[in-house]
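Support reply, case 0932

Customer input (verbatim):
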Amino acid sequence: MTNMTSPIESRIKPSSLIDRLDWNLLRTFMVIAKERSISRAAGRLHLTQPAVSQALSRLEDQLGKVLVMRRGSHFEITQAGMLIQQLAEEIYGNISQLAVADGDVNDRDISGVVRLLVVSGISSTGYDDFLAKFHRESPRIDLQIQVMRSADIVSALLQKTATAGISPDYLLPKKIQKQLFIPQRFSFFCGRHHHLFGRSNLTIADLRTENLVSMSGDQIGDNFSKLTLFREQNGFSGRIVASSASMTEIRRLIFTGFGIGCLPDEIAHGDVMQQKLFRLPPDEGVVNVDLHLLWNVDRNYSPAESVFLDSLRSYIPQRPDLANT
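Our regenerated output:
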């Protein structure tokens, strides 16, 4: 007689991976990934470095995946490692939610890691105030902020390797939700080393043949394509002589006279007051490239991540300077 296994029996049969996985190794890897260092992880866990290295090797063997790439002093968490870190934090976060559900834990007691991906050059006193307030109220939640291109932020959110992002919202997938974070108005500026600096009665016509400094994402189809469209619609023919994905470097290139370029008014305000930069026409600015808070609605968030997202989303409407910076 053939031995038949029912669908129910097959579903509840434990996998060999779950049977042999040592959950203590997951906790060790969480600390390794957070510290980005074997030695620092060993210090935090009160273990020797060889013991932590051995735990990492055992976890990689059990999973059959490389979680950390080490070449000399270079230490990098692989894509598989980031996924395992996320899953481990969710596991331990769900356990901590048992205490939260019983009302035994408040925000000050919740611990964990929040990964926030941001575009370069965010300037907002309201944002700074929120971070200060959040840290006071949730001191055990660690915040990791990484600067990335807009497209990479969206990609990471889709892969569920980050908590949230702050970025322009060009062509977002359906799974990515958004909330207006900081409206940004871009204007043209030149630096004190540029021949247009300080000149009065300038018009857009005076800018059309000037060399340009450009954001790397400033091209048709990207988040800053509004800047490209403005130049094309107004007959700009100058050559793009310098570019960067970093707003800080764009500001530096404009200041040092490589060409004229666009910056958010808020970022340039201090330099204009110190006469390091000079605002150019048009008086009403060039375009709006608003920043949005982005998150993946399909992601399972740890208690720490939920506290951060809920706090930030509720804080934005309370602070007009976050919505009108």
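We compared this against your earlier run and they match. Two observations from our side: Residues 13-79 form a domain with the Arc Repressor Mutant, subunit A fold (CATH 1.10.10.10). Residues 1-15 have pLDDT under 50 and may be disordered. Please reopen the case if you see a mismatch on your end.
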